[in-house]
Write a structure and sequence with these properties.
Helix content: over 70%
Structural class: mainly alpha
Order of helices and strands: HHHHHH
Largest sheet: none
Distance between the termini: 18 Å
Shape: elongated
Radius of gyration: 17 Å
Strand content: under 5%
Number of strands: 0
């Protein structure tokens, strides 16, 4: 009984952490749109170039989501979740230190890979770890 409770708490913590990462990733994608005018000034590039931040982000999320089913067959979900968290943190740090547009774009693409991993992993955890009757 105690082992079942511990496993249950661990499962819910994993689901919560993936849900939080997914939420922050989607929020991150949405919030970037309001910064376009400031990014145009800071990096000295045109608006159509700045829009590649969102376009590239969404493309990368889609590509990674499409490969996650394969990755889940090859690697444990826990390891993929840790990779997703690590990638998001690395993308945040690179983005915070970005001095030019290409570096910022790379940071956003790394964050997109993390979001593309975390969203399917969240649903994988829910469907495999939570009993169907719950």
């Amino acid at each position: 009984m105690i082992e079942k409770i511990k496993r249950g708490n661990h499962t819910y913590a994993a689901i919560f952490s993936m849900a939080l990462l997914t939420f922050v990733g989607i929020l991150n994608e949405t919030a970037m749109n309001v910064t376009y005018p400031e990014l145009v000034k800071v990096f000295g590039v045109s608006l159509d170039v700045i829009q590649w931040i969102t376009t590239g982000y969404l493309l990368m999320v889609t590509i990674v989501m499409g490969t996650t089913a394969y990755l889940l067959r090859q690697f444990p979900a826990q390891k993929l979740a840790l990779v997703a968290v690590g990638m998001f943190v690395i993308g945040d740090v690179i983005g915070a230190c970005a001095t030019n547009f290409p570096v910022l774009l790379v940071a956003r693409l790394i964050q997109a890979m993390a979001t593309g991993l975390s969203t399917p992993i969240l649903f994988h955890l829910i469907f495999t770890e939570i009993p169907a009757n719950r």
